[in-house]
Amino acid sequence: MPTPSLIVGLRLDGKQAAVFGNDQAAAASRAVFALDAGAHVIFYGPEIPESLAKWANVGRINAKPTSTYASSDMSQFSVAFVAGSTDLVAEKIARDARAAGVPINVTNNAELSDFTLMPTYRGSSGLQIAVTTNGVAPRVASRLLKEITSKLPTDLEPQLKQVAHLSNVAREAEQQRDQLMATMEVGDKDADISASATVGNTPALQNSSPGSVSDQAPQYMDLSTLRTSANQLSQEVSVQTAASYVAHALSDLCFVYSAPEQLLGEAALAWSRRAEKNAYGEWVSALRMETRHGAGHAVWGALSSGSRVAAIASSASLPYMVPVLMELVERKQPVVIHVAAQSLDEAADVQTDFADVFAALQTNAVFLNSSSAQEAHDVAAIAHAVAHTAQIPVIHVTSAANNESSNIKVLSHQQLAAFVSQVADNGPVSADVAVQQVLDRFKHKFSRTYCQLEYSGSKDAQTVFVSLGQVAADALAALPDILKQGNTGVLNVRALRPWDHAQFLANLPASARRLVVLSGTRGTGSAHDALLADVSVAAFVGNPLVPLSVSGENVYGFGSVGVSNTMRTVLGIEPIAEEEEEQQQPETAAASAEPMAVEDDVLAVAKRLAFPEAYGTRLEARPGERTFEVQVSSLRRMTPDTYDRNIIHIEFDTRGTDLTYEIGDALGVYGYNDQNQVRSFCQEYGLDGDVLVTAVKDGQTQTRSIFSWLTYALDLFGRPSKKFYAALADFAADEKEA
Fold first, then answer.
1. SS3 state of residue 110
2. β-sheet with 79-82: strand ranges across
3. Cα–Cα distance between 435 and 429 in angstroms, integer?
4. How many domains does the chain have?
5. Which residues, in sequence order, are bridge partners of residue 552?
6. Same domain, 437 and 532
7. Is CB count within 10 Å lower at the N or C end of the chain?
8. Helices and strands, counts by H and E, the chain
9. Are residues 412 and 332 in the same domain?
10. Torsion sign over Cα 324, 329, 332, 338
11. DSSP state of 291
12. 25 in any annotated domain
């Protein structure tokens, strides 16, 4: 038996390679190997072969007579090839190469060669695959290579190009990161606290879109209500609020990277403004951050100061965090990023989308996902426990399109802190071990079961649908009805990373022959098929007992009925008819609408005014803001009246106020509606402008008169938002109007 060789790769980009010999065909093939690797070739021989002319024309290869070669020339080369020279010449060149420490390959002479060339597949993205039998059966090696490359996933090259792009982003961010770290006092904890206090007191953006008072109430609730509802059925909670509750409870600093189309992290920001304490009895600073290149450096700096850190982010911000995530994984820093997987469809509606999440998979962080509010709460707790047990960043992905609220069982602050502490005592361990340990511990302690891979359906299923997140939830909801007409199953991928081929195959029924991946990602190709690629590779290299066919169906934006019908079509079952919504004209809808339930309690308002200390009542024009009333000294319209955009020059007179303004400062200017127009509006709709209305706005309970709400708090006569037009389209009588 031949001695196994050590397979290595030489980086020749920008280096020189020497090719010797009279055998032009063999010499040309060696030269191409070096040229493809980026080397500059010096060709010692009679003349350059015609096949290398294109390289010579661009200066990548130079020809020299063999007689001009001297032993001292060898030191300038990084690798040497000999093809077709006499034995004496080959031996001399080999001695020179060994003396200079240059690896050499001599055609048909293993004794003089330091290495051999293997049949190699070269992809357009940099992928290379080589097979060797150490000279025993070269043709077998070539056939094996052909067999392997013929079964590569069709989208593998685009995915590798995406990885290359992200690597370039990482390199571009390297210099910015070094500059930032050079100026950050990461060891100065007081500096971090000061910065946190300054930014954390910045109020959240106000929702100024038109609507009734009830429309302005955010989806999150008071933190005290969640805490008192621990382990009991609480009030209705949304997916994002459930995840934010855990992030706030288990962190000292919470960074919010929200998308413009979604008020993500508003609950955490509101709790921070109200100085709500976390599970460790400490105040939490929530900071709103920008999504841009280098996003995540603040997280890194906070971790370096020893703080417990969490982040709430839209999936669009995740690719920008890739360089930092790679560093945090390498440095074993425990942090949890709660990511809302989302994108906007053509109707400007938020849809669950994993495309940006898939683009960050190569960071080697742990990726867990959830769909419902209860899952978001539980998996968030599991994510924090895994991060501290494995000392690794964990990405908890929630379904942003799931706006429904539901009753959930909430863990108290004490339970959350104790759970994380108990499992962290078993660490540090590897990521795969940590995930399984935490899942087992959560099941034992709270009697709620989660697995890395969760199979539901028939034990005799031949077709298994594989998915994750909201798409998996929709598939599981459709499964009971589909099972009445055929054997199938759904495999919910709870842990996208770490990924284990053997574990994936072990969770499939033995009868499985066909795997269909349901992808909820926009677009085609690139990183959107990462789950399909994982499943394809598992089916190919995971040594399944029987051959498995793998295919994919993209159900982005389909909804629950669309997912069900896709599954039925794959199985050859008749799809179900989608329910047609009853089209109502605005006046008909208004007439049939149920009256809004409004609590009428004059005494409650009176008590807040009479006892401001007890109720924390403050008389402010805009709660949470430091406001000034100034005079407008100049107001000029810069664009003509016929122009559809308004550019206005305004000058303010700040005399008599405490307002100071320096270059670089930002001022928020709050306009208000014309009071005469508001009075006409109230009269037309039969509203008493002096009636007081109490509502929750930006996480604070505010009491205003109807006249004040319509004048100062609502953009009543402003330009409607995109969502307004999207909702209005449902009432269009003409298709062109929609």
1. coil
2. 61-64, 40-44, 16-20, 79-82, 104-106
3. 10
4. 4
5. 517
6. no
7. N
8. 25, 25
9. yes
10. positive
11. -
12. yes
Q: How many CA atoms lie within 13 A of 627 on its CB side?
A: 13
CATH classification of the domain holding 57: 3.40.50.720
Q: Does residue 203 have a cis bond before it (omega within 30 degrees)?
A: no
pLDDT tens digits, one per residue of 35-68: 888 899 999 987 778 878 888 888 899 888 888 9
**Does 425 share its domain with 504?**
no
Do 437 and 507 reside in the same domain of the chain?
no
Tokens of 366: 């742990």
Judged on CB neighbours under 10 Å (0-12, 13-18, 19+), 618 is exposed
Torsion sign over Cα 629, 631, 634, 636:
positive
Nearest partner of 80 among 49, 41, 53, 108, judged by Cα: 41
DSSP H or E stretch at residue 648 = strand 648-653
Domain assignment present for residue 523? The answer is yes
In this structure, what CATH number is given to the domain that contains residue 484? Answer: 3.40.50.920
Using H for helix, E for strand and C for coil, what is the string for 386-442? HHHHHCCCEEEEEECCCCCCECCEECCHHHHHHHHHHHHCCCCCCHHHHHHHHHHHH
- If asked whether residues 399 and 376 sit together in one domain, one would say yes
Rounded CA gap, 540 and 552, in Å? 15
Q: Which residues of 148-186 are buried (b: 16+ CB within 10 A; e: fewer)?
A: eeeebbebbbbbbbbbeebeebbeebeeebeebeeebeb
In a domain, 92, yes or no: yes
pLDDT tens track for 605-662: 676 666 666 666 666 666 656 677 778 888 888 888 777 667 888 888 888 777 776 6
Taking alpha carbons only, the member of 401, 376, 387, 261 closest to residue 317 is 261
Residues of the chain with pLDDT under 70: 1-2, 155, 159, 161-236, 259-263, 345-350, 400-403, 523-528, 543-545, 577-605, 607-626, 644-645, 661-670, 696-700, 719-725, 730, 735-738
Q: What's the whole-model pTM score?
A: 0.53
Q: Residue 685: inside a domain, yes or no? A: yes
Q: Are 672 and 713 in contact (CB under 8 A)?
A: no
Do residues 300 and 366 share a domain? yes
Q: Are 397 and 339 in contact (CB under 8 A)?
A: yes
Same domain flag for 477 and 610: no
Strand ranges, E, within 258-354 = 285-288, 309-314, 336-341, 343-344, 350-351
Where is the domain boundary, 413, 446, 479? 446
Q: Which domain holds residue 387?
A: 184-201+222-446
User: pLDDT tens-digit profile of 180-227?
Assistant: 444 443 333 333 322 222 233 333 333 333 332 233 333 344 555 555
Domain end among 392, 412, 446: 446
- Asked whether residue 197 falls in the same domain as residue 86, the answer is no
Residue with tokens 């930014």: 199
Using one digit for the tens of pLDDT, what is the confidence trace for 384-433?
Answer: 999 999 999 999 999 866 667 788 889 999 999 999 999 988 878 999 99
What whole-number distance in Å separates Cα of residue 158 and Cα of residue 358?
Answer: 13
